[in-house]
Amino acid sequence: MLSEIVSFIIFAFGLVLFTMSIGAGRNLLKGIVYMSIGAAITIFIKLIFFDERPCAGDFLCPLDSGIVSGHTITSMMFAMAFYNKKEFIIFLGIAMLVAYSRIYFGFHDLTQVARSIAITILAYYSLGVLTGGIDKKG
């Protein structure tokens, strides 16, 4: 669980720097809040459910559940903070690279990553309902 927290902090810091460098700072706080919600969802799911990782038994394989990919959920949640904004496609591309890397390096299988993407979309639309709507175009 500590590795997830450290990864989250490093990823968030990198996204802050990148977001500021392309001039998309107005949605930065929203993105960090969405990432935090994604991290909380990940921790909650991993505490309740267990699914072995494809890399189980390998020296570098995390010991926690692979039921969902925290990296995929947090990067997708950050991208969703820019939905209907011109920067969305950039952040979605980065999030998809993160998702692919989880499969490529053997930390998750396709089902676990697909589940993570589905949970992200469900969480985003649930947040929209709770906060009074999805972002307007602009």
Can you give a write-up of this model?
It is built from five helices and no strands. The mean pLDDT is 85. The termini are far apart. It is an all-alpha fold. It has one domain (2-131).
Keywords:
single chain; 138 residues; 66% helix; 5 helices
Overall radius of gyration: 15 Å
Largest sheet: none
How many domains, in number, for the residues?
1
Head-to-tail CA distance between termini: 37 Å
Low-pLDDT residue spans? none
Roughly what fraction of the amino acids lie in strands? under 5%
SSE sequence, one letter per element: HHHHH
Average pLDDT taken over every residue: 85
Q: How many H/I helical runs? A: 5
Q: Summarize the amount of helix as a percent range.
A: 55-70%
Please render the helix and strand layout as text.
Blueprint: H1 2-21, H2 28-48, H3 70-80, H4 88-104, H5 110-131
Helix pairs in contact: 1-2, 1-3, 2-3, 3-4, 3-5
Concise synopsis of the structure shown:
The chain is mostly helical and 138 residues long.
